[in-house]
Amino acid sequence: MDSMMCLAVGHDGLVYGGALGEDIEVWSGEDGSLVRTLEGHWDVVSCLAFAPDGTVFTGSWDGRVRAWSGADGAHVFTLEGHTGWVVAVAVATDGKVYSGSDDKTVRVWSCKSGTHLQTLVGHRHPVCAIAIGPDGTVYSGSADWSIRAWSGRDGSHLHTIMVGHSQGVNVLACGPDGTVYSGSDTTLQAWSGVDGTHLRTLEGHVSPIVSVVCGADGRVFSGSARGGLNVWSSPAHGNRLLWTVGVDQAVNDTIYDDDNVTLAVCPDGALLVHRCSTQSIERFV
């Protein structure tokens, strides 16, 4: 198992992982056995997401998004149009696929046909993260230190959040109540999905945050570049730090041994955690 760039769990419980290689591996959620390998990208697979019908969409540094059948892993179609790496992909419940790239754009596609529908332009630097709110609003985070909110209906720009991080926005997630969480430095920032108002800062990591996901119960899970995993309560309970797994270490300027933590939430609410140092996936209930 190579160093994991992305991790997600399908509606059927199968676990999909994209690594620093060009393939996507699919494992059984029950015993961890390898079910199949999806081959077709020719550079690092950086992101993946599932459509409501089970179709799997994977984005790669080769500038393409590929669609795969969730039933048997067959290649369905390829989305082409970006002029840079694809580093973020998300699928809305209405069947639209959103891909973000270092070409500074978000492209919108039909989940069913792969047709290009629209290009969302506005960021000044690479788009690093995409999240979709429960009302269908689309959020894109960028290296330009901003989060832009777009209408899921027609793609119009709704508002822009100029975040308070010390770096560009690397990861985004939306909670079931519409709260938007952004990460890049050692903090998570929480924002109102309605108008972009800053709600609170979540402090607890000592190395940069590289992964964030939200559970159906509103809890927030964040993983760092140096092995730390923090679990935060829902906004209704103040986003308090509940517990920490692993020892987060500050980045040393002369020695930087990555131990990126990659996270995924299962349909049953369990959390999957991949650590570079162990090259294994742990399950937390």
Q: Estimate percent helicity.
A: under 10%
The largest beta-sheet arranges its strands as 1-2-3-4
General shape: globular
Strand content: over 45%
Distance between the termini: 23 Å
Fold topology:
Blueprint: E1 4-9, E2 15-19, E3 24-27, E4 34-38, E5 45-50, E6 56-60, E7 65-68, E8 75-79, E9 86-91, E10 96-101, E11 105-110, E12 116-121, E13 127-132, E14 138-142, E15 146-150, E16 157-162, E17 171-174, E18 180-183, E19 187-191, E20 198-203, E21 209-214, E22 220-224, E23 229-232, E24 241-245, E25 261-265, E26 271-275, E27 280-284
Antiparallel strand pairs: 1-2, 2-3, 3-4, 5-6, 6-7, 7-8, 9-10, 10-11, 11-12, 13-14, 14-15, 15-16, 17-18, 18-19, 19-20, 21-22, 22-23, 23-24, 25-26, 26-27
Q: How would you summarize what this structure contains?
A:
The chain has 285 residues and is mostly beta strands. The chain has strands at 4-9, 15-19, 24-27, 34-38, 45-50, 56-60, 65-68, 75-79, 86-91, 96-101, 105-110, 116-121, 127-132, 138-142, 146-150, 157-162, 171-174, 180-183, 187-191, 198-203, 209-214, 220-224, 229-232, 241-245, 261-265, 271-275, 280-284.
Structural features, described:
The chain is an all-beta fold and 285 residues long. The chain has no helices and 27 strands. The strands form seven sheets. The chain has a four-stranded antiparallel beta sheet with strand order 1-2-3-4, with no helix packed on it. Strands 5-6-7-8 form a four-stranded antiparallel beta sheet, with no helix packed on it. The chain has a four-stranded antiparallel beta sheet with strand order 9-10-11-12, with no helix packed on it. A hairpin with a 4-residue loop joins β9 (86-91) and β10. It is globular.
